[in-house]
Design brief:
The complex is a heterodimer of chains A (about 150) and B (about 210). With about 150 residues, chain A is an alpha+beta fold. Chain A has 4 helices and 5 strands, in the order αβαββααββ. The longest helix of chain A is centred in the middle third of the chain and has 22 residues, at about 45-65. Chain A is globular and about 40 Å long. In chain B, strand 4 (about 75-80), helix 4 (about 85-95) and strand 5 form a beta-alpha-beta unit. In chain B, helix 4 packs across helix 6 (about 125-140) and helix 7 (about 150-160) packs across helix 9 (about 175-190). Chain B is built from 10 helices and 5 strands. With about 210 residues, chain B is α/β, with parallel strands linked by helices. Chain B has helices at about 10-20, 35-45, 60-70, 85-95, 110-120, 125-140, 150-160, 165-175, 175-190, 195-205; strands at about 1-5, 25-35, 50-55, 75-80, 100-105. The longest helix of chain B is centred in the middle third of the chain and has 16 residues, at about 125-140. The chains are: A alpha+beta (about 150), B alpha/beta (about 210).
Chain lengths: ~150, ~210
């Protein structure tokens, strides 16, 4: 999983488009992708984390979600880049699922940490699942965002 | 004869550009520069119609060079060049006063074409840049600022506008407070607002709440 896939050499946008197209073709699920990249180039490990998270999330969706639509949004501001992957499937009772070690989400959490980021999973049974990966652009050594008002 | 100055920090690239341009009968490369300091000096001592300028220079980069040229009222035509694809820099360069933008991955024949075009006082854009300009035109007319928000960012906006605290929002959206805080900052940035009150006003004015 840590090998860099060749498609990433074409850029993160191309790699995500490729993921989206192959996922959509294979599963017949309507998949939308919206990309908002920051102006500065991303570090390779951040690109890789975003790509692998998208890939893993899509794998989970094809195995478990039983959904008809998926939405992938890569979005950024001056300090953070985020990846949201949302489906309209059957959802799950999170976090109960992870205590059984399911869905590789703990792996994704660990991966997010290696680039100073974090992962949120929100899901309700019957109302789909949404995974949000947030990564600071300034690198893992910077203090994290101020919490709450 | 069109007089050209080439500014790039890599000697082999300068050589390639020079050789490519010298194939055109009416273009002459009169000088080369490898840095901001050198290009300033060269422009003082040589007559120049077109400056072919790399974006990535050591020290002050090409965009800096461009804006300082424009600040001093220099009339030299600037053709920006970079190894980055068009979407990263092209519009910024054009906005900053460049006459054209080229991707180094492009066809060398494009370079000659571009120099000839900007020397005539016209702008040079590749097909990719033209497409982006048209897309921009379209989006400026037909969409509001909040159309650029993701679903989650929009939900955050609506909940803030309806007076909810970040911790409540985090709970309702099942996100960590950190994420909601980033969304809030991002919404403010994207909508060009500075605080929650302005955010609420925006939401009301645009009929979102």
């Amino acid at each position: 999983m840590n090998l860099r896939p060749a498609i990433l050499d074409q850029g993160l946008a191309a790699a995500l488009q490729w993921l989206q197209a192959s996922f959509s073709n294979r599963n017949g699920i309507c998949t939308q992708l919206k990309i908002g990249l920051p102006r500065q180039p991303l570090p390779t490990n951040v690109e890789l984390t975003l790509f692998r998270t998208a890939q893993e999330a899509l794998t989970n969706i094809s195995k478990h979600a039983q959904c008809t639509a998926v939405n992938i949004v890569l979005s950024s501001d001056s300090d953070y880049i985020s990846l949201e992957i949302t489906d309209n499937g059957k959802g799950m009772n999170y976090p109960a699922t992870t205590s059984q070690g399911g869905f590789g989400i703990s792996g994704l959490r660990e991966r997010a940490k290696t680039v100073g980021g974090w992962l949120d999973v929100s899901s309700t049974p019957g109302a789909g699942t949404s995974i949000t990966l947030m990564i600071p652009l300034s690198g893992p050594d910077q203090p994290s965002a101020p919490t709450n008002s | 004869m069109i007089q050209v100055v080439v500014c790039d920090d890599h000697a082999m690239i300068r050589r390639g550009i020079k050789d490519t341009l010298s194939e055109a009968p009416n273009i002459q490369v009169v000088a080369e520069a490898a840095s901001y300091a050198e290009v300033r000096e060269v422009l003082r001592t040589h007559a120049c119609d077109v400056l072919v300028l790399d974006i990535n220079l050591p020290g002050r980069d090409g965009l800096d060079v461009l804006s300082s040229l424009r600040e001093t009222g220099s009339q030299v035509k600037v053709l920006m060049m970079s190894m980055f694809p068009e979407e990263q820099y092209a519009l910024r360069c054009l906005k900053a006063g460049a006459q054209g933008y080229l991707n180094k991955a492009g066809d060398p024949a494009e370079l000659v074409n571009a120099v000839l075009t900007v020397a005539q006082g016209r702008k040079y854009v590749t097909a990719e840049v033209a497409q982006m300009l048209v897309d921009n035109l379209h989006s400026a007319h037909s969409t509001a600022l909040h159309a650029n928000l993701s679903e989650r960012e929009l939900e955050t906006l609506l909940k803030i506008a309806s007076g909810k605290r970040l911790s409540e929002i985090a709970q309702e959206l099942m996100l960590s407070p950190k994420t909601v805080s980033v969304y809030r900052t991002r919404v403010l940035e994207k909508l060009k607002l500075s605080n929650n009150t302005e955010l609420a006003v925006y939401a009301i004015r645009n009929g979102l709440v």
